[in-house]
Amino acid sequence: MRTHVILPEDLVKAVDKEAGKGKRSQFIEEAVKEKLRKDALISALRRTAGALSAEDHPEWDTPEHVAAWVRNLRKQGDQDFEERQRG
Question: What pTM was computed for the model?
Answer without folding.
Answer: 0.61
